[in-house]
What does this fold into?
Amino acid sequence: MTDYDYQALLKKAKCNLPEHIHDGERFQMPEPDLFIEGKTTVFRNFGEFAEAFRREPDAILAYLLRELGTAGNLDGRRAIFKSRLGTEQVKTRLNAYFNTFVVCSECAKPDSRLVKDGRVLVLECDACGAHRPVKVPRAVTETGPALAVGNTYELLIQDLGKKGDGIAKFDKYTIFVPGTTKGTVVKVKIDNISGSAAFGHVVTE
It folds into this structure.
Protein backbone atom coordinates (compact mmCIF):
# COMPACT_ATOMS: atom_id res chain seq x y z
CA MET A 1 0.00 0.00 0.00
CA THR A 2 1.37 3.41 -0.94
CA ASP A 3 1.52 6.41 1.38
CA TYR A 4 -1.15 8.03 -0.74
CA ASP A 5 -3.55 5.10 -0.26
CA TYR A 6 -2.99 5.17 3.52
CA GLN A 7 -3.59 8.91 3.76
CA ALA A 8 -6.74 8.64 1.64
CA LEU A 9 -8.14 5.82 3.78
CA LEU A 10 -7.26 7.69 6.98
CA LYS A 11 -9.03 10.80 5.74
CA LYS A 12 -12.08 8.78 4.77
CA ALA A 13 -12.16 7.08 8.19
CA LYS A 14 -11.99 10.43 9.98
CA CYS A 15 -14.85 11.74 7.87
CA ASN A 16 -17.00 8.80 8.97
CA LEU A 17 -16.43 9.41 12.68
CA PRO A 18 -19.38 10.87 14.62
CA GLU A 19 -19.18 14.61 15.18
CA HIS A 20 -19.22 14.21 18.97
CA ILE A 21 -17.56 11.38 20.83
CA HIS A 22 -18.75 11.07 24.41
CA ASP A 23 -16.38 10.10 27.15
CA GLY A 24 -17.06 9.14 30.74
CA GLU A 25 -17.28 12.81 31.69
CA ARG A 26 -20.19 13.67 29.44
CA PHE A 27 -22.28 15.14 32.26
CA GLN A 28 -21.84 18.87 32.71
CA MET A 29 -23.60 20.44 35.68
CA PRO A 30 -25.13 23.84 34.91
CA GLU A 31 -23.90 26.88 36.80
CA PRO A 32 -26.46 28.20 39.33
CA ASP A 33 -27.91 31.54 38.22
CA LEU A 34 -28.84 33.40 41.40
CA PHE A 35 -29.75 36.97 42.22
CA ILE A 36 -30.73 38.71 45.43
CA GLU A 37 -34.12 40.42 45.50
CA GLY A 38 -34.65 42.22 48.81
CA LYS A 39 -34.45 39.60 51.55
CA THR A 40 -34.86 36.65 49.16
CA THR A 41 -32.67 34.76 46.70
CA VAL A 42 -34.07 33.81 43.29
CA PHE A 43 -32.62 30.68 41.65
CA ARG A 44 -33.46 31.49 38.04
CA ASN A 45 -32.32 28.29 36.31
CA PHE A 46 -33.47 25.80 38.95
CA GLY A 47 -35.48 23.94 36.29
CA GLU A 48 -32.29 23.13 34.38
CA PHE A 49 -30.97 21.20 37.37
CA ALA A 50 -34.17 19.20 37.76
CA GLU A 51 -33.94 18.22 34.08
CA ALA A 52 -30.20 17.47 34.23
CA PHE A 53 -30.60 15.35 37.38
CA ARG A 54 -33.82 13.73 36.10
CA ARG A 55 -35.38 14.22 39.52
CA GLU A 56 -38.60 15.85 40.70
CA PRO A 57 -38.13 19.60 41.37
CA ASP A 58 -39.99 19.27 44.70
CA ALA A 59 -37.51 16.63 45.92
CA ILE A 60 -34.46 18.72 45.02
CA LEU A 61 -35.97 21.85 46.58
CA ALA A 62 -36.86 20.01 49.82
CA TYR A 63 -33.25 18.82 50.07
CA LEU A 64 -31.84 22.30 49.48
CA LEU A 65 -34.16 23.93 52.02
CA ARG A 66 -33.18 21.39 54.66
CA GLU A 67 -29.46 21.70 53.98
CA LEU A 68 -29.51 25.49 53.77
CA GLY A 69 -31.74 25.93 56.81
CA THR A 70 -34.21 28.23 55.11
CA ALA A 71 -37.74 28.35 53.71
CA GLY A 72 -38.69 28.64 50.07
CA ASN A 73 -40.96 27.61 47.21
CA LEU A 74 -41.09 26.89 43.51
CA ASP A 75 -42.13 29.61 41.07
CA GLY A 76 -42.45 27.92 37.68
CA ARG A 77 -38.92 26.93 36.69
CA ARG A 78 -37.43 29.15 39.40
CA ALA A 79 -36.87 28.49 43.10
CA ILE A 80 -37.30 31.25 45.68
CA PHE A 81 -35.38 31.11 48.97
CA LYS A 82 -36.50 33.26 51.92
CA SER A 83 -32.96 34.34 52.78
CA ARG A 84 -29.87 35.73 51.10
CA LEU A 85 -27.64 32.97 49.75
CA GLY A 86 -24.35 32.88 47.88
CA THR A 87 -23.73 30.94 44.70
CA GLU A 88 -21.11 28.72 46.34
CA GLN A 89 -23.51 27.84 49.16
CA VAL A 90 -26.09 26.56 46.70
CA LYS A 91 -23.54 24.94 44.40
CA THR A 92 -22.07 22.93 47.29
CA ARG A 93 -25.51 21.54 48.15
CA LEU A 94 -26.30 20.74 44.51
CA ASN A 95 -23.04 18.81 44.20
CA ALA A 96 -23.90 16.91 47.38
CA TYR A 97 -27.37 16.08 46.03
CA PHE A 98 -25.90 14.90 42.73
CA ASN A 99 -23.33 12.65 44.43
CA THR A 100 -25.92 11.17 46.79
CA PHE A 101 -29.08 10.86 44.72
CA VAL A 102 -28.00 10.86 41.05
CA VAL A 103 -24.53 9.65 40.05
CA CYS A 104 -23.69 5.94 39.88
CA SER A 105 -20.79 5.01 42.15
CA GLU A 106 -19.69 2.26 39.72
CA CYS A 107 -19.65 3.93 36.29
CA ALA A 108 -19.90 7.60 37.41
CA LYS A 109 -22.80 8.27 35.03
CA PRO A 110 -26.02 10.10 35.92
CA ASP A 111 -28.35 7.64 34.13
CA SER A 112 -30.07 6.43 37.27
CA ARG A 113 -33.42 5.97 38.99
CA LEU A 114 -34.49 6.04 42.62
CA VAL A 115 -36.60 3.09 43.75
CA LYS A 116 -37.89 1.89 47.11
CA ASP A 117 -36.83 -1.57 48.31
CA GLY A 118 -38.97 -1.98 51.38
CA ARG A 119 -37.99 0.96 53.57
CA VAL A 120 -34.65 1.47 51.84
CA LEU A 121 -34.16 4.01 49.03
CA VAL A 122 -32.03 2.46 46.28
CA LEU A 123 -30.27 4.12 43.33
CA GLU A 124 -30.35 1.90 40.23
CA CYS A 125 -28.10 2.72 37.27
CA ASP A 126 -29.60 2.28 33.80
CA ALA A 127 -26.14 2.50 32.20
CA CYS A 128 -24.31 -0.33 33.97
CA GLY A 129 -26.99 -2.05 36.03
CA ALA A 130 -25.35 -1.33 39.39
CA HIS A 131 -27.46 -0.48 42.40
CA ARG A 132 -26.70 0.88 45.85
CA PRO A 133 -28.63 2.07 48.87
CA VAL A 134 -28.80 5.82 49.20
CA LYS A 135 -26.91 7.02 52.25
CA VAL A 136 -27.84 10.60 53.05
CA PRO A 137 -24.84 12.42 54.57
CA ARG A 138 -25.15 14.79 57.48
CA ALA A 139 -26.08 18.33 56.58
CA VAL A 140 -23.26 20.38 55.15
CA THR A 141 -22.38 23.12 57.60
CA GLU A 142 -21.32 26.60 56.69
CA THR A 143 -17.68 27.53 56.79
CA GLY A 144 -17.05 29.85 59.69
CA PRO A 145 -18.00 29.75 63.37
CA ALA A 146 -20.97 27.73 64.62
CA LEU A 147 -23.76 29.33 66.63
CA ALA A 148 -22.19 31.09 69.61
CA VAL A 149 -23.33 33.38 72.41
CA GLY A 150 -22.58 37.01 71.58
CA ASN A 151 -22.51 36.51 67.81
CA THR A 152 -25.04 38.11 65.47
CA TYR A 153 -26.77 36.24 62.65
CA GLU A 154 -29.23 37.17 59.91
CA LEU A 155 -32.16 34.78 60.39
CA LEU A 156 -35.55 34.08 58.85
CA ILE A 157 -38.40 33.91 61.38
CA GLN A 158 -40.14 30.74 60.21
CA ASP A 159 -42.84 30.39 62.88
CA LEU A 160 -44.20 31.73 66.17
CA GLY A 161 -44.05 29.97 69.55
CA LYS A 162 -46.87 29.59 72.07
CA LYS A 163 -45.77 32.77 73.85
CA GLY A 164 -45.60 34.74 70.60
CA ASP A 165 -41.82 34.64 70.24
CA GLY A 166 -40.45 34.27 66.73
CA ILE A 167 -38.77 30.97 65.88
CA ALA A 168 -35.78 30.69 63.56
CA LYS A 169 -33.55 27.77 62.59
CA PHE A 170 -29.77 27.62 62.41
CA ASP A 171 -28.10 24.25 61.77
CA LYS A 172 -29.40 22.00 64.62
CA TYR A 173 -30.60 24.95 66.74
CA THR A 174 -34.08 26.35 67.26
CA ILE A 175 -33.73 30.04 68.11
CA PHE A 176 -36.42 32.01 69.97
CA VAL A 177 -36.53 35.74 69.23
CA PRO A 178 -39.15 37.91 71.00
CA GLY A 179 -40.74 40.85 69.24
CA THR A 180 -40.56 39.39 65.71
CA THR A 181 -43.16 38.33 63.15
CA LYS A 182 -43.34 35.27 60.92
CA GLY A 183 -41.72 35.67 57.49
CA THR A 184 -39.37 38.51 58.42
CA VAL A 185 -35.56 38.43 58.17
CA VAL A 186 -33.84 40.01 61.17
CA LYS A 187 -30.38 40.37 62.68
CA VAL A 188 -30.31 38.41 65.94
CA LYS A 189 -27.69 38.51 68.68
CA ILE A 190 -27.49 35.23 70.62
CA ASP A 191 -27.93 35.68 74.39
CA ASN A 192 -28.04 32.08 75.60
CA ILE A 193 -27.76 28.50 74.30
CA SER A 194 -29.24 25.49 76.07
CA GLY A 195 -28.84 22.18 74.24
CA SER A 196 -30.39 22.62 70.80
CA ALA A 197 -32.40 25.69 71.86
CA ALA A 198 -31.07 29.23 71.73
CA PHE A 199 -32.40 32.64 72.73
CA GLY A 200 -31.60 36.01 71.22
CA HIS A 201 -32.78 39.53 70.58
CA VAL A 202 -33.09 41.71 67.50
CA VAL A 203 -30.30 44.20 66.89
CA THR A 204 -30.43 47.21 64.59
CA GLU A 205 -27.56 48.64 62.62
